[in-house]
Amino acid sequence: MKPQRVRMAHNLLLNYGLYRKMEIYRPHKATQEEMSKFHSDDYVKFLRCIRPDNMSEYNKLMQRYNVGEDCPVFDGLYEFCQLATGGSVAGAVKLNKQATDIAINWAGGLHHAKKSEASGFCYVNDIVLAILELLKYHQRVLYIDIDIHHGDGVEEAFYTTDRVMTLSLHKYGEYFPGTGDLRGHRCGKGKYYAVNFPLRDGIDDSTYESIFVPLLSKIMEMYQPGAIVMQCGADSLSGDRLGCFNLTLKGHARCLDIVKGYNVPLLLVGGGGYTIRNVARCWTFETATALGVEVANELPYNDYFEYYGPDFKLHISPSNMSNQNTTEYLERVKIRLFENLRMLPHAPGVQMTDIPEDALKVDTEIHTENPDKRVSIQASDKRITCDEEFSDSDDEGGPVRREAGKLRKHQENFKNKRLKTDSNTDDTNTDKVSNEKVSETISEKNTEQVSEKVPEIISEKLQEKISEKLQDKTKLNTDEDVKKADELSQNGKNGDITNKNGDLTEKNGS
Ligand SMILES: [Zn+2]
């Protein structure tokens, strides 16, 4: 299982130099216990056990859990689920701890997975698990889904609660997964909290924006979420192998830009997308959008350069397909949805109880008096840093020092914020650094190729500070640094981020 789409996106945004504004983290592997916060124990256990070489022993269970056809068994399936989930949950933790404003896990976004059932190449619903984490700190969470498919797994998971509102814009009508009509299907307290905009083929940028903007505006006014999770499935782009919409990168990312404008803690996840060169383009552009930076249309040379021919440009053009979403149809749907939204109480409250324990344990590594443990911060930085990927910068001492400097800079500039490293996991778990503005993670599952894989996280406002820091050639493990780390950690809190992905092939999907 090669996480090709995410690998390509990651490589492209590295070569655009976006990593200079990002913090990069390797995902922790979500445990069976973490996944069972939503999924049934027996289903997670099944995912852990099933392999291509023992499938014949599991025929009955494969049927029960819908694994085998649209959701094939492959080598590394469970680890794929662990990393995709770990990234999104860790992003949520980081947002909860106010260690970042935007966290990104392009490997996540597997919105079809159900409690005890795989669906559309989604096995574990990282989104639901991340939302559950956000609900520990936020009264209301808004989920936005711009994948071409209905976000059915997320909608269903929060069927009866008003603490999560789901907004999904998707192709509807003889199309996977078959749900997502205008009425929405939630009940009890959850009634009217599933906002579905069923669309026809060929929707273009301007039409999409004309419905997205007023709808989101009304939702934000009525619901006032404390955090937002946005699924940026790229199968809604023009030219997708499975899709039938006509969005360009600009129209797709425009939605993100609008969401970002509300300045609410935001977790971005990936999702579908089956023309992988465009998926990589899209998520690279959206990473830049999250950062608020311009990127050139001319693609930089990268490891997958040949995929982007013949034009080797970032942006794509819409096709000449007809837009079957007439103005009358869209207005009619919009009016209905607005009527539903008016039925809702304004920003429903919830009685908060004690905050449950965070999904990820607060790391104690930095508090330890064992000097070997402190060194491990640097050691971990080495593990996640790839000389080749960062080699375009000839400044100051190479990537390891740069990463170390990044940590130090955080320590210097965010003394009132928490900084923590996460020590509770195995070698695949690297240190976490608090961040101010944007966090993005991309990583890969193959821990034996650590030098090629770089999960990442971004910081927007930090950029200048990081640049300054790059001038600094001192090493992390000087006495002074250790002292600063200690000071900071004593004020500190924690957060982390992770992620991972696999290449989604042409299935009904995400
Ligand atoms: Zn999809």
TrEMBL record:
Gene3D superfamilies: Histone deacetylase domain
InterPro entries: HDAC_I/II, HDACs, His_deacetylse_dom, His_deacetylse_dom_sf, Ureohydrolase_dom_sf
Signal sequence bounds: none
Chain sites annotated for binding a divalent metal cation: 147, 149, 235
EC number: 3.5.1.98
BP GO annotations: heterochromatin formation
Compositional bias ranges of the Basic and acidic residues kind: 375-386, 398-456, 468-487
GO cellular component labels: cytoplasm; NuRD complex
Histone deacetylase domain sequence ranges: 1-288
Enzymatic reactions: N(6)-acetyl-L-lysyl-[histone] + H2O = L-lysyl-[histone] + acetate
Molecular function as annotated in GO: DNA-binding transcription factor binding; histone deacetylase activity, hydrolytic mechanism; metal ion binding
Pfam families assigned to the protein according to its UniProt record, in alphabetical order: Hist_deacetyl
The keyword Nucleotide-binding belongs to this UniProt entry's keyword annotation: no
SUPFAM superfamilies, sorted: Arginase/deacetylase (SSF52768)
Sorted UniProt keywords: Chromatin regulator, Hydrolase, Metal-binding, Nucleus, Repressor, Transcription, Transcription regulation
Family designation: Belongs to the histone deacetylase family. HD Type 1 subfamily.
Name recorded for this polypeptide: Histone deacetylase
Organism encoding this protein: Ridgeia piscesae
